[in-house]
Amino acid sequence: MSMGAKKKSLLDAFSITDRRSCEKAIRNGGIAAMVSAGITAIFAGLGFITSSSSKNLAYLLDPWLTVDVALIVILGIFILRKSRVASILMLLYFVTSKGIMWYDMGKPQGLFMSAIFFLFYFTAMRGTYIWHKSYKDESLVPFV
Asked: Are 90 and 76 in contact (CB under 8 A)?
């Protein structure tokens, strides 16, 4: 590492400074959605084959989570396609679902991971807006 090189921090992964970082932020938001869908699918799948007497575990082992999986996958695909609407809906869905889950369970759980996913979704939302404002390929628009 050279003397003038700045050491990167965790928050540098969420900054948008140019076209490449904008594309990366959007891609990371879409990937985060797919990871979230995968984790949710595991719990939904387990909900089909098992049950639990624990209130918190029973809340997570719900077969109806497959609806959440479908919604998250659809929004994730559209985020990868740089949709501003999908990125806003994903962020709102995430915040709402976490709020409801924490209310139903009686306390916030998984705050660190929730904060990381929130940062990915928020940065993807910012990225889609910056993309459409500054970097969208104008060559695809037909001449009028």
From this structure: yes
> Which tens digit of pLDDT belongs to each residue from 72-115?
999 999 999 999 999 999 999 999 999 999 998 888 989 999 99
- Averaged pLDDT of the chain: 88
Residue 56 structure tokens? 């918190």
Asked if 127 and 29 touch (Cβ cutoff 8 Å), the reply is yes
In percent, the amount of the chain with pLDDT more than 90 equals: 62
CA distance 90 to 83: 11
Contact 26, 79 (CB under 8 A): yes
Structure-token match 């459409």, residue found: 132
In whole angstroms, what is the distance from residue 53 CA to residue 38 CA? 24
3-class SS string, the chain? CCCCCCCCCHHHHHCCCCHHHHHHHHHHHHHHHHHHHHHHHHHHHHHHHCCCCCHHHHHHCCCCHHHHHHHHHHHHHHHHCCCHHHHHHHHHHHHHHHHHHHHHHCCCCCHHHHHHHHHHHHHHHHHHHHHHHHHCCHHHCCCC
